[in-house]
Records
---
Amino acid sequence: MSKSKPKQITPAKPRAVCAQVEEVPAMCPTCQSTDRTGYEGIIERQISGTKRDGTPFNLVRWLSCTCKGCGQRLRVRRFENRP
Ligand SMILES: [Zn+2]
C-alpha cells in the first residue's frame, strides 16, 4: 500500500435509511434481571396471529434458559414474523 494514496472516505449516508427498532429483552419475573444463560432448548410452532399490541406473528418459539441473577429457570416465549 502506497502512503501517498489518499484514504478513501465514504460520505456519510443519511441516517433515515436505517429504521430504529427496539428489542425488549426477556426479564426474569423473580429478580428483574435481563441477564441469562444461552438458550438450551428451542421449541418452534408455526402459529399465526396478532399480539395484543397489534404486532403480527407467524412463528412462536419457546426458549429455555436460566436467569444469571437468581438461577430461576425461564421459558422465554418469542413471537416472530418471518417472510
Ligand atoms: Zn432472576
---
Amino acid sequence: MRAHLRKSAGLVLRRYDFRETSLIVILFTEKYGKIRALVKGIKRDPRRFGSRLDLFTLNELVFYARPHRDFDLVGQAALLDHFGGLSEDVGRFGAAGYVTELTHAATVEHDPDPALFQLLVSTLQGLEGAQEQFWLMRFFELRLLKQGGVLPSWACCAKCRKTLSSPYAVFRFSERAFLCSGCSGTAREGLVLHPGALEALSQLSAQPSADSQDAAAETPEVRRELSAWLRLLVDYHIGQRFRPLEFLRKCAHVAEARHPSVSGAGVL
Ligand SMILES: [Zn+2]
C-alpha cells in the first residue's frame, strides 16, 4: 500500500520511546486530525528533524500517511512553538496536560477538527503566561462541549420556559437540561447552580477567545459550581471518567501551596 505525503502543523499530545533511537508520537494535526506516528532515528540524530518533538510542542510536520499500518511515518518536523512558559510552573504544566489529554480523549484518529486544533493552540498560548489556570481550562471545556454539540442551553427552564434566576437552577443530568427552582421540586435532584454561576457561564461563553479573561463576579462557590457542572458534561462527552483530572488536582495543589496569593477557591 502506498504512503501519502502530508504536510500540516501538529501538536504533540503524547510521546513514547521506541527501541534505542526512535519515538512513537501521538500528534493532533491541523489538517488531518489525530495521528500516531513513528519518528525513526530522532534520538540518534535530532538535528535532522529540527525538533525533538517534545510534549506539547507545535511543529510543522511532513509525514507519510500509511493506510493499514499501525503508524504513520514522520519525515520532517520543524519546531514552531515550544510554549516555554508552561514548564516554568507546575500548575501551568498540569493544565497543559489536562487540555491535551482531554483533546486526546475527545478525538478519534483521522478525523480533522481545525477548530479544536486552534482552540488547543490558543489555550496553550494563554496558559504560557497565566498566573492561574482556572478560567482558561473552563473556557476550553466549554468550547469543546459546544463544538461537540453536547452543551445544554441555560437560557431558560426546560419545563416552564422562564428565565433561570434566583434562588437557583437545577441541572438534571438524565434530561441534560436546566429546571428553575419552581419546576425542580423540593428534592433538588441534580446539580444546583446559583445565579452567579449561570452569569459566569454566560460571560465565559460570550468570550471570543481563551486569552481574554474577564470573568467578573467570581466567588469560590461560582468556581465550584461551574467546575462540577462542566466536569459532569466532559465525562459524559468522552464517555468515561477522565483520570487526568486527578493528576491535575495534585499539580494544582502544589501550585497553590507555592502561590497562595492566587489560590482563590482552588484550580478546580
Ligand atoms: Zn420552570
---
Amino acid sequence: MRPKHGWLTAVVTLTLGGGVLVASLGGCAGCEPTNQYYEPTQPIPFSHALHAGATKIQCQYCHYGAEQSRHAGIPAPSVCMNCHTEVRTDSPEVAKIRQAVETNKPIEWVRVHRVPDHVYFSHEPHVTAAVPCERCHGPVAEMTVVSQWASLTMGFCLDCHRTAPAEFLGDTTSTPLQMRGGALTDCAVCHH
Ligand code: HEC
Ligand code: HEC
Ligand code: HEC
Ligand code: HEC
Ligand code: HEC
C-alpha cells in the first residue's frame, strides 16, 4: 500500500506556511491530493528504459490487460521467464524471478498509481480510443524507475475530456456536451 498523502501535504503546508493552520488533516481543501512524482523502490530493480526503451518490448506485451479491462495489470513472473530462461541467467535479480516462479509466490511490486475510491477509471476506453500511454504516464520507456508523472487530479482528467472528442474521437463538430448522449465531462462519467 502506498502512504496516504493527505497527511504529508498537510505537514508540508504547515511547515512551509510558517505556522498557518491547515483546516483539516484529512481533506485539506484547496490542496490537490496528488501523489505526483511518487517513485517507490521496487523489490527487483526492473528498468523500463532497458526493456521498453533499449530492447523495444511493446508496453502491452506485459500490460496486456489495458486493452480489455479496467486494469493494465502487472505481468506474472512467468512472463519475465519467456526471456530470462536464456537472458542474464547469471544475475541475482533474475534469480529472484526464477525463485518466484519455482515457489509460486508473486513478486511484491509496489503500486505506483492509484485514483481515490470515489473515482472510476478504466484503461479500456482510453486504449480503444488510442490515447497513448505516455499522455498519462509520461516517457515510461526512458524511466529506469517508474514514477507518477502526471498529477492525476480531476483537472488533469477534465482538461483532456474537454478536447478529447476532436483530438481522439475524430469528432470536430460536436461539443463535449453532445457526445454519447451526455458529456465526457459529466460528473457521473468518473463518479458513479
Ligand atoms: C517486460 C515487461 C514490461 C514492459 C515491456 C513494460 N512494462 Fe510497465 N511494468 C512492468 C513491471 C514488472 C512493472 C512493476 C514494477 C515497476 O513499477 O517498475 C511495471 C510498472 C508500470 C507502471 C506503474 C504501475 C503502477 O504500479 O502504477 C506503468 C505506468 C507502466 N509500467 C507503464 C508501461 C508502459 C507505458 C510501457 C511501454 C512504454 C511499459 N510499461 C512496458 C513490466 C513491463
Ligand atoms: C522480451 C524479453 C524480456 C522479457 C519478457 C523480460 N526481460 Fe528482463 N531483460 C531482457 C534483456 C534483453 C535484458 C538485458 C540483458 C543485458 O544485460 O544485456 C534484461 C535485463 C533484465 C534485468 C537486469 C539484470 C541485471 O542484473 O543486470 C532485470 C532485473 C530484468 N531484466 C528483469 C525482468 C523482469 C522482472 C521481467 C518481467 C516483468 C523481465 N525482465 C522481462 C529481456 C527481457
Ligand atoms: C487516460 C490516462 C491513462 C492512459 C492513457 C493509460 N493509463 Fe495506466 N493508469 C492511469 C491511471 C489513472 C491509473 C491508476 C488506476 C487506478 O487507480 O485504478 C493507471 C494505472 C496503471 C497501471 C497500474 C495499475 C493497473 O491498472 O494495473 C499500469 C501498469 C498502467 N497504468 C499501464 C498503462 C499502459 C501500459 C498504458 C498504455 C497501454 C496506460 N497505462 C494508459 C491512467 C492512464
Ligand atoms: C489524454 C486524454 C485523456 C485523459 C488525460 C483522460 N481521459 Fe478519460 N477518456 C478519454 C477518451 C478519448 C475517452 C473515450 C471516450 C469515448 O470512447 O467515447 C475517455 C473515456 C473515459 C471514460 C469512459 C467514459 C464512457 O462513458 O464510456 C472514463 C470513465 C474516463 N475516461 C475517466 C477518466 C479519468 C478518471 C481520467 C483521469 C484519471 C481520465 N479519464 C483521463 C481521454 C482522456
Ligand atoms: C474525467 C473524470 C472526472 C469527471 C468528469 C469529474 N471528476 Fe471529480 N474527480 C476526478 C478525479 C480523478 C478526482 C480525484 C483527484 C482530485 O481530487 O483532484 C476527483 C475528485 C472529486 C472530488 C473530491 C475532491 C477532494 O478534495 O477530495 C469531488 C467532490 C468531485 N471530484 C466532484 C466532481 C463533480 C461535482 C463533477 C461534475 C461537475 C466531477 N467531479 C467530474 C475525476 C473526475
